[in-house]
Amino acid sequence: MTESTKKPAAKGPGKTANGSSKSPRRRAREFALQGLYQWRIGGADEAAIEAHVSEVAGFDKADGKFFLGLLRGVLNERVTLCQQIQPFLDRSFEELSPIEACVLLIGGYEMQAHPETPYRVIINEAIELAKSYGGTDGHKYVNGVLDKLAAQLRPVEVEARNKR
Q: CATH number of the domain at 21-163, out of 2.60.40.10, 3.60.21.10, 1.10.940.10, 3.10.290.10?
């Protein structure tokens, strides 16, 4: 790995790349990503994921209810989510890197299940996950796909934002 491809180190435990503290929801998204990765790579089931993740250091600082909602929601809605996301991909969903695939599932689920959260916040959170855990330019791909998905799932909100 060359110097130009190395990711910047986080500024300490529980900190974002810019040094600020992570919110409980950001932590919940990170733990959901970790759990979904275990599911996608290792085939772990929901109960095993929940048991394992709840024992990981820092989980007590996450929004546990939000974590469970994301994990269970994505696992329960995965077929529908994949169908909604697929038209905006340049390859099959199965060919995506596991991290980008799981980030897209989380973002897609949040867009449909959490209308109280602005779509731009959901996309920004997904970008941050992809930057922290995904490949070098994975965040750009996630951004493009979720922008298109937002136009489909939240057309009124997207149109209102574009008029500003």
A: 1.10.940.10
State the residue for tokens 């169908």. 83
Residue pLDDT, tens place only, 46-87: 999 999 999 999 999 999 999 999 999 999 999 999 999 999
CB neighbour burial string for 119-156, b if at least 16 within 10 angstroms, e if fewer: beebbebbbbbbbbbbeeebbebbbebbeebbeebbee
Question: Considering only CA atoms, which of 163, 124, 121 is closest in space to residue 143?
Answer: 124
CB contact at 8 A, 149 and 84: yes
What is the model's pTM? 0.87
Q: Tell me the C-alpha to C-alpha distance, in Å, between residue 15 and each of 20, 110, 121.
A: 5, 23, 18
For residues 45 and 35, give the distance between their C-alpha atoms in angstroms, rounded to a whole number: 9
